[in-house]
Specification:
Order of helices and strands: HHEEEEEEEE
Number of helices: 2
Largest sheet: 5 strands, antiparallel
CATH class of one domain: Mainly Beta
Helix content: 25-40%
Oligomer: single chain
CATH topology of one domain: Immunoglobulin-like
CATH architecture of one domain: Sandwich
Number of strands: 8
Distance between the termini: 178 Å
Amino acid sequence: MFGRSTRPVPFNPYGRRRSGFRLPRWLVLLLLGTAAGVAGVIIVQERYLPPRLSAAASVKLTAAFEQAEAERLRLKGELDATAKRLETSLAEKKELSDDLAASRVTTTQLRDDVSSVVASLPPDPRGGGGVEVRAGRFSVKAGSLAYDVVLSRDRGAGKPMAGVMQLIVVGEGARGTDVSVPLKPVALSIGSHQVVRGSLPLPDGVRPRQATIQVLDRAGGKLLGMRVILVK
């Protein structure tokens, strides 16, 4: 009654059917690891890291950073300018120090030269009072008596000695008569030698011919030295 089928029957000794598609095991492990990593990052960010900034907070933070950076650049510029000024000041200070040292050397040389010149001058013919008037020069300029006087003390003199120089001019007065007029005393500090320069006003109409130099220990005091010199 029934006809037989001619189709072949597959032989499956295990009695199971094969599935159509299976993911590779390595790909499944990779996906699981990626998912676990993402979850871990999210958990760490939410629980342990500071909260993420909002857009407004980010803008504010960026503005604050830019302002701080501008301030840093400004301060750096001021620091560079200050450092440059300091370098210039140090260079000027060094130059002044060098000039001062050179001036001291020059002053010492001049002092030695003056001492040599004073030593070569003829002695005061009226010496003996403690101070010698070694040389003097007088001239009349614009109604004043200009003077250059060289004084010296004994070689064994110690610290500078205070005193005054009194000039007494003798000449022709305004009425044509001879007059003798004392001028204002000049304060002195005499060491081993002293060069005194300056000028003193003359009385109106007085034309001096000579000047008497008096060295006193004080105004109107003891006479320490004296010399008369012509006025040119």
